[in-house]
Structures are given as C-alpha cells and as structure tokens.
Amino acid sequence: MVQIKTKRERIKFASDNVTGACPEVLDAILKSNDDDKTPYGNDKLSINLKDKFSEIFEKEVIVFPAASGTAANALALSTITPSFGNIYCHRLSHINVDECGAPEFYTGGAKLINLNGINGKIMAAELDNSISGKGIVHHTQPSSVSISQLCETGVTYKLDEIKNISDVAHKHNLSIHMDGARFANALVSLNCSPAEMTWKSGIDVLSFGATKNGCLAAEAIIFFKSELVGNMPFLMKRAGHLLSKMRFVSAQLDAYITNDVWLKNAKHANAMGKKLSQGLQLHKSIELAYPTEANEVFVKIPKYLIDQLNSHGYKINDDEWEDKAVRLVAAWNTNPSDIDSFLNIIKS
Amino acid sequence: MVQIKTKRERIKFASDNVTGACPEVLDAILKSNDDDKTPYGNDKLSINLKDKFSEIFEKEVIVFPAASGTAANALALSTITPSFGNIYCHRLSHINVDECGAPEFYTGGAKLINLNGINGKIMAAELDNSISGKGIVHHTQPSSVSISQLCETGVTYKLDEIKNISDVAHKHNLSIHMDGARFANALVSLNCSPAEMTWKSGIDVLSFGATKNGCLAAEAIIFFKSELVGNMPFLMKRAGHLLSKMRFVSAQLDAYITNDVWLKNAKHANAMGKKLSQGLQLHKSIELAYPTEANEVFVKIPKYLIDQLNSHGYKINDDEWEDKAVRLVAAWNTNPSDIDSFLNIIKS
Amino acid sequence: MVQIKTKRERIKFASDNVTGACPEVLDAILKSNDDDKTPYGNDKLSINLKDKFSEIFEKEVIVFPAASGTAANALALSTITPSFGNIYCHRLSHINVDECGAPEFYTGGAKLINLNGINGKIMAAELDNSISGKGIVHHTQPSSVSISQLCETGVTYKLDEIKNISDVAHKHNLSIHMDGARFANALVSLNCSPAEMTWKSGIDVLSFGATKNGCLAAEAIIFFKSELVGNMPFLMKRAGHLLSKMRFVSAQLDAYITNDVWLKNAKHANAMGKKLSQGLQLHKSIELAYPTEANEVFVKIPKYLIDQLNSHGYKINDDEWEDKAVRLVAAWNTNPSDIDSFLNIIKS
Amino acid sequence: MVQIKTKRERIKFASDNVTGACPEVLDAILKSNDDDKTPYGNDKLSINLKDKFSEIFEKEVIVFPAASGTAANALALSTITPSFGNIYCHRLSHINVDECGAPEFYTGGAKLINLNGINGKIMAAELDNSISGKGIVHHTQPSSVSISQLCETGVTYKLDEIKNISDVAHKHNLSIHMDGARFANALVSLNCSPAEMTWKSGIDVLSFGATKNGCLAAEAIIFFKSELVGNMPFLMKRAGHLLSKMRFVSAQLDAYITNDVWLKNAKHANAMGKKLSQGLQLHKSIELAYPTEANEVFVKIPKYLIDQLNSHGYKINDDEWEDKAVRLVAAWNTNPSDIDSFLNIIKS
C-alpha cells in the first residue's frame, strides 16, 4: 500500500533511534523472560556485566546499566561535578542543547561552559585557555570535561585528540567524560580497541550507548576509575533509574556486546552511511557539511531538493542543524535499497 | 537439577517484581519492533494511549508513560508540590521509605510529612489535623497528599476512605496523588471501575503501575485534571525519563490494558494470594499481620518455620517489614503448585 | 504617650529577636565603618575571628560568619549531609518546623527524620533505634544528627546527654551538628566551658548564635573538624551569604565575644527569665510546661489571663507551641520593670 | 604612620564595596536600635518600604529587602525562571561569572545563555536571534533576560536600548530582570527617573543595589508586576535570607532613599570617576578601555605603570578584566585627594 510505504520512508534516515532492536537483542529479552529473577540489578546477568565489560575494555570497570542516554550522561556527570562546578563541553554537544538541562538537574546546578571547537570537536588548546578561576570563591569551579564520540557533527575524535584533551583535563585536575551515544560507530570508524578509545586515551567515565545501535532502551555508565563512582547507586535509585526488572536492560547489553553484535551492527551502519554520503556527493548541488566518518551524513541540500524529498514523505528540515546542514543517519537496519530509493528521488 | 530448582524457588513470593512479562506484553514488544517509528513518544502507539486510557477511565486523561514506578511517583508529585511544600503520606509509604528520596529530589526538597494511620492506611481525620501552617512563611507549605493503593500492608483503601481523604485534601487546597504500583490488584479486589477508584473518589493524579503485573518496565502517570500537568514534558526529559524508543514502553502499556489483560493478570495474582493466605492460616503458629485483600500476604511466622523455609532455598527475612511480619507476594505468573510446594515445607 | 507604651509592651517577651544590638556591638559597627576595608571576609577583623574563636573553644576551629541562623544551620548541615541523606532531629526542632525547608534546600533534598524525644530533647536510645538502612540503595542514608542547645522547649541538654547522643551518632559514622541559636544562654545555664558543651562532648559543627543575644545579624558556623568543612566557601557564596561588607558581621561577632559581652548578656537574660518564671509560678492557675533553665519560659496560662494580657497590648497566642503552652522570652535588654509590669496585669 | 597609609591606599579604587556606610545610613541603624521591634520584616519601617519605593518608582511596587546583591539577583531570577529555563545574559555579567552559580542554585539548575554583546552590553538583535527552541521538549526553555545597569564594563544602557531589549524579551514572553548593583550610579549618569530606567522601559524585576553606594548590607528586590512575585516569601525564608532583625536592613534602605541620599552619593561617586578618568587620560600611554559613564573607570595601563602603582601599595591586577583592562572604582566616599595621590604616582 502506497500510503504505508510513504509513511515508512518518511522517518528513514531521521535518526538511528527510529529503529527497533536487532534480533540478537530481542532474543535475549525473550530468553530473560523465562523465569523469575532477583530485581534491581541483582540478577546474574546484571551482575555479570561487570566482567563482560571489563573483558571488552581490558580493565576492571564498574558498570551501571541505564535506560536512556540522557540519564547515563547526567548521572555520570553528577559524580564528577559538584553543584558549583563547570562542565566544559562543545556548544553543540547533546548534553548542552538536547537534554533539557539534565546535567544541571542531576548536578544540582552546574554550569556548562560552551567551547566553540572546530567541526563540532573541542580543541585541547581552547579548553586549556578556558579553564580558569580555580579556588576563587566567586567563580564556579572547573570540574569536568565532556566530549561526544561520535561528536555532534558526525566526525570522530582521533585517539591523539582524545589524549590531548584528557591531558589538559587532568593537568587541571578535572575528570573527563565521554558521551558515547554512538560509541560503536566511532570505534568501528577508528578501527581501534575500546580500551584505546577510552581509558588508554585518558577517559575517566563513559556513557556507553547501545539503544541507537540495536537495543530497545539500554545504555551503560562505565567507570574506568573506581574512586569516581561516588554515590552513583543512591543517585540512580533516587532518580528512578534503578529499574526493578533491570535484568531486561542487562539482557540487552549482554546480547549487544556478545559475539561482536555491536560491532557488526555499527560496521553495517557506517557502510550505509558511507554509501549514502557518496551517493549524495554525486549530485552537483549537494555538498558535505562535515566529512562522513561513520553513520551520520551532514549535507547542504538546496531547498528545491529538500522539497522534492519531502514531497515523497521524508521530513527533512534544514533549520535543525548548524549552518542549515541536513543530517541523515544510517542505522544497523538500513537497507541499501533504502538509500537507493532516497537517492533516486533527487536524481530524477 | 536440584540446584536450579532451589535457586528458582528462592525468590518465588519475594515480590511481584521478580516476574517477567506476560505473553501479550511480550508479543506487543515484538510487534512494535517491526518497523522504524518516530522517537520520543511521537509514534502512533504512544499518541493513542491518551484515548485508550481515557476510555478506561471514562474521562479525558493525560498520560505520560514511564519506565519505573519511582520515576512515575516522583514526577507526578513534583507537578503538585513546590520545593517548599509538604507531601502528606503514610510513614510506611513507598515514597517515604523505599525510593531513596526521589520525591525530595524531583520536587527540589519538599518535606514528606509522616502519618501513622491504621494498618498502613492514612486516616482522613489524622490528615486533617496534620495540615497546618498554610501561608506562614516559616513553615513548609501543605501541598499534596499521596496514598498507595494497594497500600504497603497489602490492604485496599475502600472507595469511601479514598473519598474522605480526597475531601480533606481538597478542603485545604491540596492535590492528591495515588501510587498505584499495584493498581490492578486493588481494583480487582474492590471490584469497582477504574473511574470509581480514582477521579470519582477525588484522585487528581495517578501512578498507574504495570511492571509488577505483567510488563517489563512500564508505568503511566495519569492526570485527571489537565491544569495539574504543568511542565511535566520538560521535567521528564530533564530527568532522562523520556526514552527515545518510548514506543516500547507504550507497546507494553497498550497490550496490558487491551482485552482486559491487566485485570486477568491481577485476578489470578489475587486468587493466588488468597490461596497462599488461606494455606498459611491453617498452620496454628502462623497468624496474619494484615488481612489479605489482594496479592500480598503479610504473616507472622515463627523463627523455626522461617529457618525451615530458607533451608529450602527461600530467602525470607522477618526484619524487613513492620512488626516482624513477613511479606509474601503472589503474581500474575504464580502457579498453584508454587504455593503447594511452599506450604508443604511448613506442613512437614 | 500611652499608645506608644502599649505598642512597645506588645512585643516584649515575644522573642529575643525583637531586641536591637547591645552597645558594645553597635560601637564595633561604628568603629569598623571608619575606613575602607577588603571585602568578602578578607579584612583583618574577619580573618582574626578564627584565632579568637579558637581561643574561646580551646581548639583550632574554622569559622564562617553568617547573617542568619537559618543560613548557618542549613549551610552547616549541607556539608555533612548528602542529597540522599537523613538528618535526625527532634520533631519540634527549628530546622524541622521553622525554616521553611532550608535544610532540604541546601542539601538538595535530604530527609529530616523526626524523633519524639522527651521534653523537646532527643534521647540517645531513640536515636540509636532510628538509624537504619545504611548501605541499602532503596533507603535514604543516615548522615547527620542535629540538636538545639537551648532546645525548643527552653531546656538544656546536659553534658552527658550531648555526649551520649554524639556517641550514638559517631558509632554509626554520622556527624553531629548543634543549633546554638541560644548557645550563650545554654552555656551560662550549664556553667561550663564552650569546649565542654561542644567538641569535648562530641559536637562536630556548631551554629553559634549571636543575633538574639545582642547582635543585629551575626551568627557563625564553627567547624571543630577541618575535614568536614568541605566546599563551604563555594556553597556560601553560591547562596548569596558571602556578604561583600562581611566585616560588619565580623565586627559584631568580634565585639560580642570580646570581654565576655556575650556571657554578660546571656547571664542577664537568664536571670530575667528566672525572675519571670518565678513570678508566674506564684499565680495559682499558671503552671510551667517545661522547667525554666535559661531565658525561655514555657507556661500554661488560662485563657482569661491571656485575654487580660492581650488587652494590655501583648500578643500572646497559646496555639503556637506544643500542648498550648505559651512561650515568653527574656533577653539581654529585658528590664526587671518589664517583668513587673507584665506580672502586675495578671495579679490584678 | 606610613604603613597604615599605604595599607589604606592599597584598596582605594579596588571596588566601591570596600567602603563603609554613609552617615545617614549609619544614623538610621542607630535610631532603629532604640526599641524592640517585630521581627522578620513585620516592623513599621520594613512595611513602609513598599510605599516609599512605590513613590520613588511612580508605581505600586512590591519590595523585598535582602542583605546581598547575589541573593537579590538569584532570588529575583528564580521567580521568573523555571529549573529548565534559559536566562539570557551577557557573558561578562556578574550573575554569570561572579556569583559562583547562585542563579543556577536558586532556580534549581537553569541555564545561563551567554551573549557576546558590544562593550559589555547585550544587543537586542543578538538576543532576538538567540531565543529559540520554545516548546521543544529537548531544549531548555527561554524564560528570562537579565541586564546589568551599570553593566560590567562601567557603561550604561541607554533608555532606548533597555526598551529594545525588553521588547524582544516580551515579544518572546520572557521576563526581564535588571541587576542594579550600581543602579544609582547609572541613574545619575542617564539623568532620568527611576521609573524611566525601569518599568517604563519594560523592566519587570529589579535588584536595587544600595550596599556599594552607602549602605552596609542592603539591597532590595523590586517587582513592577505583582504577578511575578510568585513564592518569593517562602523562597527567601528557605534560603536563610529572611533576617529576624530585618528592620536593620530596612532602616538602611529607608535612610538611603530618603532626602536623595542615594542620588547625592552616586553623583559624588560619578564625579570622582570622571575626575579619575580624565586624569588618567592625560597620560599618553594610558587609554580608556570603555567610556567612563559613571563611577567605574576601565583603562589599559602599561605594565611599568602598574608596577609603579603597586609599589606604592595598590594592588592592581591587569589579568582580572577583559582584554587586560584595569578597573578602578570611585565611591561615595572618594576624596579628590585620593585621586590626586593616585595620579601623582604615575605622573612622577
């Protein structure tokens, strides 16, 4: 039926959070449902996550499953930032513009210091220059840094960039958080190990995203330094984020990181991103706003082409992103044919 | 294998949150997974919840799906209680003793005024006497009342009791919230309509529980007065409780309230509760701490019997509840044979 | 003029905060005004407070001047209580019922656990029994204890009572705060040293009150353990309690604790309290509600006598205090003749 | 004695908060001390402030005395900004950089959106462009605007500039606050009426500063729209800013606005500012960073001259202000000879 088809296409590429869960994750939920289990994360699956993630990160880590990325970010930041603290982040960062002030709520009123960066990425030198006022009672106190990997323009921080930023943070005694909503996509793009992209490059706390890349609602807060965990269990509970049937979140995470499901999904999404990006670049009036390094494609598309796409059911808005770029996101479930259909519209 | 059996039995009756999801809910999740959908509660299923719940409650309601009961309670209370407000509740209430201060966190520091009540239930007269200080700047301000239905002793508020409490609340210009973590069990026990147990008895806001009675992680905040909704959408987002794939929560709720699944589950759980209660009362050294009106059984069991049960793998703790009563909870998935096994141990 | 006289009498004995400043304190303000001084507590007078108070308390203390008792209490409690913490206090305590939730605001939502005590005083045994739930994520966490000296019924905690309560607090790893709004009155009543009434009896942090006993607006937060100071300077500033011309608060405190001004004022107030109490007890229909140990007199007065007093301009309200007792407070500036006038009315 | 003289000079011009109170204000404190008075702002003087300020502002206003400017700003902003709100302000504004996050604390986590402006002043057009995201749940919500008059570069907003900014604010349904820490200095500089500089130009709430211009510790929060007052009395009390002997703050304010004391003080301070500015400009290597419109002088002074001044006991720091400008502040008590002494050092 035409209508249904149109409707379906409409949100394709809108984001990777329009997708459902991948089969492996769904199976894990079904399997976890078989029997009664201890609530509040005291079931075997939840408890075992620590070892599983420690293996993946080649280091003993401490893991807290969470149901949303906003919760993971805000809870993580609240353990490394006092109420009177500064969180240094890119002005475009999700924590700054897309979480309705969650970091402020969870920290009790910390201040997000906006950095301009380049191409959506914080620059170590700008960060270094921005950190000031330590110990002066009139000023909110430099406390933490947060970077997004993938960052908000779809590009990756390279390992040495992460290292340089972490070094600046640590030089000033700040902790550093990585918002890894698209952690797997970045990892696959950099072709490095999870350890290399995090604690080996100086990251202290990670929001490990899984929802966008094949789960229903599953993220993990991962601490690489146990001394930073602080009062996390109480803060989670107090925020209503300690689910009674936590095992279902844990089951998702467990399946996601087992047998490289997460990497497989991300590789596919990135490949689809590349295919879409290359197809778009063939069009002479379309130009990339940022390089396509993973599954997000930022392009500048002339108004008449946007209108053409939207007349076919897409809902593309060139006012949502910086410099009127349009964001298109490939996902673990994107079909090559989805891309072909999309490209065909602007070819014709 | 004996060990697995022992382990399984261990948590039977520990709570109704040790269960998984019922088949109808699980099916709904699978079905919802088929296709890409608009995120953040803007999918069709989520949007339709308003009409579905309005039908069930015979009134136009406003619905916010949530993933945990603590979140539902705290968010609901935060819209009807300012930071300097008083929330009147039973001293044993879940919001007071089992949510690690979530209402305080979400309201920005409201005060929970503990009422003694009788058998775990607030009494209208005690509430009336406790409300004071309105308009005096030195005192935190009477703002809201919260009752649990089922309450924390497993008994139900009768319709006239709810009405009397609501009348006191409204007389003082307070709003009244119902923590319906076991809403269906209470409803089935009272054999009345959802409307009668809520807004027709004066309830303003409801935490509609579904997780314990057959969902994975699904609750709903239901407003019976639109003027109380306030800034809920922003408060939810800010708290990390607006899930991107909200449709999966909505799918659970939708299946749960369709074809009387919720009532069927609750009826079964209550019947099992009654069977368990009756079986226990046959034992001459066991006495009920509170009447068994739904699926929760509170009994005083002699130490040697507790030891006997625990030696069979149960983990019963007589220190957890008021007056050393033991709480046993039947659920939608309790088998009569589960009860027989349990009772057999203390018979022998 | 009669009218003025009536008006003046009206608030006599209403509280010790209806008084102005004593001459020594007023002189100090005038003297401090002579010259430009470094702001924000970096003037000589402010800096020297540490040494002056250390001498008085026979121990190196850390001092923060504050302009209100509510601020002193709430700030002090916020350094020893996390947002998910419990503060154990008497149900009648000022922090619980007369500060509009300031401790909740400053701690970010801590819970005040109400103890019944006896005669307005916490009992060590009840405290001990009330502390529970430590380490369990569902429960707010036992964190601090607060006692008022004078307590809210005008009686003093004896040294061994303080010691016993502190011992319980420390046994459970809780910190203990003393609300010393009427510290001097209690001290003079007990006839002990400031050290004995505080850290030698186990007190960790003190709100040292001075406003009621001869200052305009001057209190001090005094830490007996430097490791508890935490982020106090930032929290004060952030709350707007770091006054730019802090020297005027410091000047008051300095004059107050110099040459035993504070003790002289308190001795007088207590003597006037005793005179008033004795005079009232001569009346056969008046009985003491609590023993008069310092400058506060709690009496039960028949309605016709209250009416008689109020017809002479007093504004006595027997609904404000526990058990319909009436509170009358003598102050540093109470004249014996004020008492005689008051007593004469009920004699006639 | 030379040393004392040096010490005194050291802080001259450091700020106008190094000064004491002017004689009229000091007299008022002494006078207010004569008698017992009703506490918590219920004394006659406090109550009458409403009428006095209403007369001055040619409009019925609502007044809350406060002891610090930070408290006045943060409390005012908290009534017009929800926890998830945006406060638009200049990046250099006091509320943004010099209050250790007080607005965030009082609002429960609002976000201060930094505007670049020109010369320290917000531009209406930039403000207009910055306001976005209204109604979108992912974004913190545009709620209020705050401007400083004098602003942080010592210049004044002209009446039409205030009007234009207010118009933008109101067009977007935002409320607008004026931080009037140096309200009198700005007023005298503009030579307009208090009404013209505030509500006639669209201002909704004002922090009326008095401490810097002749009081000890006295500010006032002034609402020009009663519907914005909200829960201010409770918020003040809860923050420990409702002083029991509030009459002393009120006495200061009363004396300050009586007989044009405030205007007289400000005129003198501005004249001294002008004298200092003109004297400095005579030096060929000194240039003004911003025009001297009131009592603050921002100049760029070569390093060797700063060293020379500091060797005479001044403590000038060219790292504290934007672009290495040096800030020198004249006050109500600045003597022409103070300026001559200062200028003589760099002449020689």
Distance between termini of chain A?
22 Å
CATH architect. name of the largest domain in chain A? 3-Layer(aba) Sandwich
CATH topology of the largest domain in chain A: Aspartate Aminotransferase, domain 2
Helix share bin of chain A: 40-55%
Mean pLDDT of chain A: 95
CATH superfamily of the largest domain in chain A: Type I PLP-dependent aspartate aminotransferase-like (Major domain)
- Total tally of structural domains of chain A: 2
Shape of chain A: globular
Q: From the structure provided, what is the oligomeric state, counting identical versus distinct chains?
A: homotetramer
Provide the gyration radius of chain A in Å.
20 Å
Can you give a write-up of this model?
The structure is a homotetramer of 348-residue chains. The first copy, chain A, is of the alpha/beta class and 348 residues long. Chain A has two domains: 106 residues, Aspartate Aminotransferase, domain 1, CATH 3.90.1150.10; 237 residues, Type I PLP-dependent aspartate aminotransferase-like (Major domain) (Aspartate Aminotransferase, domain 2). Chain A has 15 helices and ten strands. A seven-stranded mixed sheet of chain A has the order 1-7-6-5-4-2-3, sandwiched between helices. In chain A, strands 8-9-10 form a three-stranded antiparallel sheet, covered by helices on one side. In chain A, strand 4, helix 8 and strand 5 form a beta-alpha-beta unit. The two termini of chain A are 22 Å apart. The N terminus of chain A is likely disordered. Chains in contact: A-B, A-C, A-D, B-C, B-D, C-D. Chains A and D meet through helix 6 and strand 3 of A and helix 6 and strand 3 of D.
